[in-house]
Specification:
2 domains, alpha+beta, eight-stranded antiparallel sheet, 22% strand
């Protein structure tokens, strides 16, 4: 990566960090720690970071009492074309106050297909689920048993729509408000809905770049005039298109 490319990536990551700060403070309050972008070499880490570079968790209150905490870390890079900011890895972990193990994890790994790149892991226990995992004669549960380690529900990667349709921090905040009625700021819904629209439109554009023929067909059905480019872009194998990845 050249110096100019690194500078451009840093600027895009700082803009992303500012948007996350505006989101969390607009929903949860000014007590939410600000997000910062820290260059780690080939990627930029975007997270709530103190001046001493210690990553903090975001406090979430219910009825005025700090009850939950969110640990949010993004590792950013350029997309495949080297033009737009892309998220290489995301971790959104929900904790019950000071309990060390998370309640659930919303995660994304840009290079993963198996397990699915976008997934949720729930730290809970059900006897029936443990029984089903032990029935397997192959795959990840079997490897766990070979290590004399019983499979746990928290180790399951639950798919959530693939690389393009995955949930964002906005979805997690909306989930917390809907299910736990967390404390929020006046006007929180407007901020959240604006950011959700922005996120979904960015993902739609990414999906269009993955499947331009399907996008052109849909636009023609809506009455738009869409012409083939004079110099077609090279077609990628379906195996390389993130829209089709789990």
């Amino acid at each position: 990566m050249t110096a100019d490319e690194a500078s451009s990536l840093d600027a895009l990551a700082r803009e992303f960090a500012d948007k996350l700060t505006t989101l969390t403070r607009g929903v949860l309050g000014e007590g939410s720690p600000p997000f910062h972008a820290v260059n780690t070499g080939d990627k930029v880490r975007v997270a709530p970071i103190r001046d001493d570079e210690i990553i903090c968790r975001i406090p979430v209150s219910i009825n005025g009492e700090p009850t939950l905490r969110l640990a949010v870390i993004n590792y950013c890079c350029f997309d495949g074309a080297g033009t737009f900011l892309a998220v290489d890895k995301t971790q959104i972990h929900l904790f019950f106050e000071d309990v060390p193990d998370p309640l659930m994890r919303f995660e994304y790994e840009r290079g993963w297909q198996e397990p699915p790149g976008a997934h949720i892991q729930i730290h809970a226990h059900r006897d029936e689920m443990a029984y089903l995992l032990r029935l397997s004669e192959s795959g990840r549960p079997k490897r766990g048993l070979n290590r004399r380690k019983l499979p746990k529900l928290a180790e399951m990667h639950l798919p959530v729509g693939g690389h393009r349709m995955r949930p964002a921090l906005e979805d997690v905040l909306l989930f917390l408000k809907r299910e736990f009625d967390i404390d929020t700021q006046p006007g929180w819904r407007t901020i959240l809905e604006e950011r959700l629209r922005e996120w979904r439109l960015v993902q739609v554009k990414s999906a269009v770049r993955d499947a331009p023929e399907a996008a052109a067909e849909a636009l023609r059905l809506l009455g738009y005039q869409v012409e083939e480019p004079k110099t077609p872009h090279p077609r990628r194998s379906p195996e390389d298109v993130k829209l089709f990845w789990p």
